[in-house]
Specification:
heterodimer, A: alpha/beta, Rossmann fold, 2 domains, 6-stranded mixed beta sheet, 4-stranded antiparallel beta sheet, 8 helices, 10 strands, 36% helix, 25% strand, disordered N terminus, B: mainly alpha, MetI-like fold, 78% helix, flat
Chain lengths: 259, 282
């Protein structure tokens, strides 16, 4: 069943060229007495320009999967390709936003973004990116003077300043309140569209995935597998109360409840 | 009765974050009490000192009374003799502290950031560290004589050990998540050290530099007492040898005041350099 679903979706997205293609046969964390199977036979592709989310229960390996794509974890069997070239570590073709903002506390907002592209890009791009995340006025502030939402916007600007092809987001809004989160989701989508960047988002929030994505990878745990790939063909901007939205949410919840 | 209690709480409650928990008093009254709280201990000590010399609790031929000391201080300052000793001592202190600290931060960074450097240097250094700097004096004198070199080296040694230990620790203590960000951004090892690891270690480096400064003063005086014919350490020892009790205390006061000033200066530099920190502050 799963296999059929996967091929179907692959055919569907084959119209656009694939930016990312991942085929991970397996990944194990070796503990002291027993090895733990974290990822098992993961195969998916992300078309250029698409917004894809990964949802799943905690411990299903979704963050691990994202870290593999980021190049932070290279200890797995299989291959991950970007534009057909296998990756062996981090690269500037990928920008990463972590769960925590991870700003350098000793650099001002502007310096944090500039550090990312130091010696590589024109520094006027720093200003442009800060404008894009509406933080021009905060550019001379220290990270300690920022709210959670502002910090995560700086992190987003930093991830985008090298003009990556693929933006990787690991539950970036998990620590924000509902109101800020909704605003950040809208802003993220606007920015991703404006920059024409492909996005891969890890989240535990089904609604967040449904609001943002063209496609959702639903993962199951023990071992971490892709249970289903759900295409989201809803008109934008999306509304949580639309029938289509509710139907898809029910479908994903059903998949998750059987894992 | 209630009055006494009110006065006590106000003296304890200085300004700062604790003020909010204190009782409210009129601004002027509070100000006066604040001033008083600063003066109680030093004035009390002066009175005890004066009385014990005046009534021969301690022999007045060996210990000078406060007023004699004050008179001597003015004389020595006017003649420029005290200033001369101060300049000589400060030059030794500054050289030793700076050489030792800079080398300590450099080696500490290497050891903290590179496993190879750590394997090469750390076991040896950690074995030598428990030897108190003072225990190096005989060897330093044998090697470098009793000139300026051995004094500066002794102070440098103390500063080096302090800063080496704390810099290495500070670097290793850097947040792994921030190091990961630098890795994702494809930063070179040199940039990682300069822009991430060293700034992360900076608060600890500054805290250590204040300890090193205090140690430097101690080692300076030891070096000058043992083998010197100039400087504040020599000055107080000479005053004892030739029975000039007032001079001895003047020298001690000079050391105390300068020590306090050097620490305050370092504290200010540290506060500015680490103003990005999000701390309670006290």
């Amino acid at each position: 069943m799963t296999a059929i679903q996967t091929t179907e979706t692959l055919e569907r997205s084959a119209r656009r060229p694939d930016l990312l293609s991942a085929e991970i046969e397996g990944k194990t964390f070796s503990g002291r007495d027993r090895a733990q199977h974290v990822l098992d036979r993961i195969a998916f592709t992300v078309a250029a320009g698409a917004f894809v989310s990964i949802v799943g229960p905690s411990g299903c390996g979704k963050t691990t999967l994202l870290r593999c794509v980021a190049g932070l974890d290279t200890d797995y069997r299989g291959s991950i390709r970007i534009n057909g070239r296998p990756i062996h570590g981090p690269g500037l073709d990928r920008g990463v936003v972590f769960q925590e903002p991870r700003l350098f506390p000793w650099m001002m907002v502007e310096e944090n973004v500039a550090f990312a592209c130091e010696g590589r890009a024109d520094q006027t791009r720093v200003r442009e990116l800060l404008a894009l995340v509406s933080l021009e006025k905060a550019r001379r502030r220290w990270p300690k003077q920022l709210s959670g939402g502002m910090s995560q916007r700086v992190a987003l600007a930093r991830a985008l300043v090298n003009l990556p092809e693929l933006l990787l987001l690991d539950e970036p809004f998990g620590a924000l309140d509902n109101f800020t989160r909704a605003r950040m989701q809208a802003e993220l989508y606007r920015i991703v569209q404006q920059k024409g960047v492909t996005a891969l988002l890890v989240t535990h929030d089904i609604d967040e995935a449904l609001i943002l994505s063209d496609q959702i990878l639903v993962m199951e745990a023990n071992p971490g597998r892709i249970a289903r790939i759900v295409p989201v063909d809803l008109a934008r901007p999306r509304n949580r109360n639309d029938t289509g939205f509710i139907t898809l949410r029910g479908e994903i919840e059903a998949v998750l409840s059987t894992c | 009765m209630t009055d006494v209690i009110a006065v006590e709480t106000s003296v304890i409650n200085d300004d700062g974050p604790h003020a909010a928990f204190g009782s409210r008093r009129s601004g002027e009254g509070r100000q006066r009490l604040r001033l008083l709280s600063y003066l109680v201990v030093p004035v009390g000590l002066l009175v005890v000192w004066d009385l014990s010399v005046r009534y021969d609790v301690v022999p007045s031929t060996l210990i000078a009374a406060p007023l004699d000391v004050a008179e001597r201080l003015v004389q020595l300052l006017a003649s420029g003799r005290l200033e001369h000793q101060v300049v000589v001592s400060l030059a030794r202190l500054a050289q030793g502290f700076l050489y030792g600290s800079i080398l300590g931060v450099a080696v500490g960074t290497a050891v903290g950031a590179s496993p190879l450097a750590s394997r090469l240097i750390e076991p040896t250094l950690l074995t030598m560290l428990p030897i108190p700097a003072v225990a190096w004096v005989p060897l330093l004198i044998v090697l470098f004589g009793i000139g300026e070199t051995s004094k500066v080296l002794l102070i440098a040694l103390g500063s080096f050990c302090t800063l080496f230990l704390h810099t290495a620790h500070g670097i290793r203590n850097a947040d792994r998540k921030l190091v990961e960000v630098a890795y994702v951004l494809g930063k070179s090892r040199a940039l990682l050290i300069r822009r991430v690891l060293l700034p992360a270690a900076l608060p600890e480096i500054f805290a250590a530099s204040r300890i090193a400064m205090a140690l430097s003063w101690a080692l300076l005086i030891v070096a000058e007492v043992i083998a010197s014919s100039s400087g504040l350490g020599w000055f107080i020892w000479d005053a004892r040898n030739f029975n000039r009790p007032a001079d001895m205390i003047v020298g001690m006061i000079a050391i105390g005041v300068l020590g306090k000033l050097s620490d305050a200066l370092l504290g200010q530099v540290a506060n500015f350099a680490t103003r990005w920190r999000d701390t309670y502050g006290g």
